[in-house]
Write a structure and sequence with these properties.
With about 140 residues, the chain is α+β, with helices and mostly antiparallel strands. It is built from three helices and five strands. The radius of gyration is 14 Å and the shape is globular.
Length: about 140
């Protein structure tokens, strides 16, 4: 079993958690993000929404970008920011404006993460993708 507690940090740049992940540790990653965000003051409803959004993006990295990624969770001026990067082939950074059709085979995770967070940005390049999620603290 993996132990994430050693990767929890509290640095001057606001970093609270920094962790590489694979499919085998997604459940532990969710628990650690939830615990860290709760300690920072994210309340119940927003906490669940933030954890779900982070999980959707992490799952996308595992499924579509080579089996894993890197997560950095920071506290920035009254908000939590989660950056998830991967080394996959990249993808079109346009976010769906509406829910994907039920017959669609993809796009729901990004759409849901965008809906649940206060800001979602995507940067792609030859070295992979970087998705940033932001949630304001109460």
């Amino acid at each position: 079993m993996l132990n994430f507690s050693e990767e929890s940090v509290d640095r001057a740049d606001g970093t609270l958690l920094e962790q590489r992940f694979t499919a085998d540790c997604l459940a532990l990653l969710r628990a650690l993000v939830e615990s860290t965000a709760a300690k920072e003051g994210l309340d119940d409803d927003r906490l669940g929404e933030f954890v779900l959004a982070v999980d959707e993006i992490a799952c996308n990295a595992v499924e579509h970008a080579g089996g894993g990624g890197h997560l950095v969770l920071r506290r920035l001026d009254g908000a939590l920011e989660c950056l998830i990067t991967d080394t996959g082939p990249g993808f079109t950074p346009e976010l769906p404006e509406t829910a994907p059709d039920l017959d669609s085979t993809g796009g729901r995770g990004l759409w849901l993460a965008r809906l649940l967070t206060d800001r979602l940005t995507i940067a792609t390049g030859a070295a992979g993708a970087a998705v940033t999620l932001l949630m304001h603290l109460p």
